[in-house]
Amino acid sequence: MVTHAHASGSPGFDSSHSLVSGDVRRHNLELVAGHLVEHGPSSRSQIAEGTGLTRGAVTALTRLLVDAGTIREVEPVSAGGKGRPQTLLELAANDVALVILQLDADEATAVVASLAGDVLFRTADHHGRPMGDPEPVLDVLATVLERAVAAAGGMQRRVVDVTVVVFAPVLGDPPVVFGDSDMGWGEVDVLGGLRKRVPGLPGSVSLHSDAGFAAMAEFDLIPGIRDMVYLKSNSGIGGAIILGGRLRTGAHGLAGGFGHLPMDHLGERCVCGQRGCLVLVAGPDVVLKSAGLGEELETAGLGSALGDLTDRIARGDARAVESFDAAADWVARALHVLSRTLDPQTVVLGGYWSVLADRIERSFAEHAPVSASPGSYLPTIRAGQLENEATLVGAIRESRKRLLHEPLEVRLI
Ligand SMILES: [Zn+2]
């Protein structure tokens, strides 16, 4: 998503003024490059129209980007046989690649993408979820990373950015995994472990938690929304809060960790020290076990077992339906707490919950306070459109944005 936050406060301001301040100029370069990322080859007038910049500003900015080698002119095309053919501009950075590395409680995935966001290569390996031991998991993560770097090399592309995304909270500088109950992890230095295994790790490398990326990717698909709560389940339960169009991570970066909302004070003790956390009463392990899929979870992994669960629910299998609906009641209660606290316009349910959102929505309506008439403060409940791909889509978008933040430097990284 391109943010139209012009420093002057109004689009189309005087172009000579736009070149006075370095910050404003960099922002406007980012707008031009961002337009080409979003829309592909475009004429100068299309860029002006799309960004709200004046035609004169676009001419000056594109000249700088062409000189830096970030964009280039392509063969003029005739505008429908009428008028003068228009020269189109496109991103020139065809020799660079972005790598996204995603780790969940089931497998490690690596994706090679172009700066335009196209996925060029994808590979994944199961890690077998060895509880409490990060080393074999980091081995698998390093293996898929090496495969992705080799694939990029085979396509004559340099890897300029590696984004590592994990299913657990990430804190600190340098960033580390803060701990995760689904894997029995305490603090784990994922980036340090990767550097040790993959010497000369290319480009910039960063570590992020997955839910924020997934939430922003879903948010961008809903027109006119400002305030959204994202709640998802695949590896455990996670979430994110978007208020006023911005991801809010809180004072310690832990906002959105809904898996450890203490729901049942008489419930089982959680590794976090509380009782009856949402992940213990509605997480994938408890739902799969009570649906009779505990053995499939152990042998075939989380993805396969969750796929089987959703198939069984679709067929009306009584045990699967009963198991999921019991969890859906807890999720619905958590959503009422979040709705009272944050008053979002919408709630998006992601991961495997996206195909079962109607069951959670039904429970949410059943638990609604009688004072809440339809259309009053209650948010709408939506199924995530990107399902399990939301994190990758969001991570690719953020990586592109980060690189284009300094559009004149893209080729120098
Ligand atoms: Zn907990």
Automatic annotation (TrEMBL):
Pfam families per UniProt: ROK (PF00480)
Superkingdom of source: Bacteria
Gene3D superfamilies the record matches: 3.30.420.40, Winged helix-like DNA-binding domain superfamily/Winged helix DNA-binding domain
Homology family: Belongs to the ROK (NagC/XylR) family.
Protein name per Swiss-Prot or TrEMBL: ROK family protein
Source organism: Paenarthrobacter nitroguajacolicus
